[in-house]
Amino acid sequence: MDEFDIAIIGAGMAGASLAAECGAHAxxxxxxxEDTPGYHTTGRSAAFWDEVYGxxxxxxxxxxxGNYLADNGFLQPRGSLVIGRASDRVALEGFVxxxxxxxxxxxxxxxxxxxxxxxxxxPDWCVAAWQPGCAxxxxxxxxxxxxxxxxxxxxVVRLRARVxxxxxxxxxxxxxxxxxxxxxxARAGLxxxxxxxxxxxxxxxxxxxxxxxxxxRRTITQLxxxxxVPTTLPLTFGLAGDFxxxxxxxxxxxxxxxxxxxxxxxxxPEEIDVALAIDRxxxxxxxxIAAVERRWAGLxxxxxxxxxxxxxxxxxxxxxxxxxxxxxxxxxxxxAARLGAQLLLGQPADGMTAALDPARYAPGRLAMAQA
Length: 371
Ligand SMILES: Cc1cc2nc3c(=O)[nH]c(=O)nc-3n(C[C@H](O)[C@H](O)[C@H](O)COP(=O)(O)OP(=O)(O)OC[C@H]3O[C@@H](n4cnc5c(N)ncnc54)[C@H](O)[C@@H]3O)c2cc1C
Prior knowledge:
- By secondary structure, the chain is an alpha+beta fold.
- The chain has helices at residues 13-22, 59-71, 89-101, 111-117, 139-152, 199-205, 271-282, 333-345, 364-370, and strands at residues 3-9, 28-31, 48-49, 75-77, 80-84, 107-110, 127-131, 135-137, 156-158, 162-169, 172-179, 182-193, 214-226, 235-238, 244-248, 251-255, 260-261, 288-302, 309-312, 319-323.
- The strands form three sheets. Strands 5, 6, 7, 13, 14, 15, 16, 17 and 18 form a nine-stranded mixed β-sheet that branches.
- The chain is globular, with a radius of gyration of 21 Å.
- The protein binds flavin-adenine dinucleotide (FAD).
């Protein structure tokens, strides 16, 4: 039976990036249930890097990832607006103050600036927080970059292999999977759980207590609008968290910012969420919707406190969590993977991770809350 130092379960952005960061220092096995890595949440994202997205616990990870993403050519400037009505001014001022203090570049903008950026904006939208640093991410490029790096450093990637048993064997683990009806197995000293929406299910296989990682459905629809949206349109959020939109070429990607509790599966969009998104868009801009061209949904998986979970399980030796990447698992991937590898391999922080506090992301915080 093949022997590895680390077996990583799940080859989405989380597992692929972690394998890439560990590969130079350890023998890594990356096991993925689907034919295509990235088939689930990673392949369904809105593809943005936004300094404040995900809240204060996520900001340090996003900021720490920015240089890696930019230096490797994965970012394209976009800019983002969080827009509000007159009654939202105080809340937006607070938003700007809170996130500026965390190191994000964010400033208040008045209606004149907003209309320049979002033509057709209805008159009641008159105040916004503007983030010039927000960027589009080449998600497929980043994912392939990490998969290639993992393979280059010697990681073995097994696709179409759903892990269905994790057994203690000596000081390590025996990992067993089903590959289209054929059984496979390997041994590894450590197991890393990068199974996205399935993270709690994988924990149960290892005899670890689930941490309450909850999959929430999010929908996006692609619209053709008339006249076509400017390609310079910023990523635009409602302050109330009830919509966002951004251009994709001359098309519009629109989300109702839904967070519907779901179960781990190959999720599909609901028509009601598409309709809700369009209804909300029509309250924001006066654009004519010429066609609904595509719609899709993905599962964003959150720990109960909505911070990601990186670190060893406090009760099951050798079982490592790399889960709960919510709606920020692409934009935080470089720093998260570097930190995850350092924790797995017992290595010190480096320039990318020096400003991160691993305790903030440790699974023990949730296990204690559950006790
Ligand atoms: C609509 C939408 C928009 C988003 N927009 C953004 C954005 O703009 N920016 C951003 O940073 N993030 C965004 N996200 C979030 C981001 O996509 C996720 O945080 C990220 O993709 C999570 O990656 P992952 O590898 O954890 O999950 P996944 O990509 O789902 O990968 C987990 C993998 O584990 C595999 N697996 C599960 N169980 C097993 C098993 N037993 N054996 C083997 N393999 C297994 C699955 O098959 C799957 O491929 C968005 C998400 C959605 C849904």
